Amino acid sequence: MKKLLTLEAWAESRYSDQVPSINTLRLWAREGRIQPQPVKHGRTYRVREDAKYYCPFTGESA
Length: 62
Description:
This protein is about 30% helix and about 25% strand.
């Protein structure tokens, strides 16, 4: 099983120079832009460490 990270920890590992704000990360989680989909545990989203950002407009993953 893959390790689950908070959105903040996941973003820090994926983006080295400009980390998106927590509000942006929560929006991405709600809209399904992070695949595999994050899971909400209480007030905190948890995401797999190998998850990627998925752009719904272009179909590309980053």
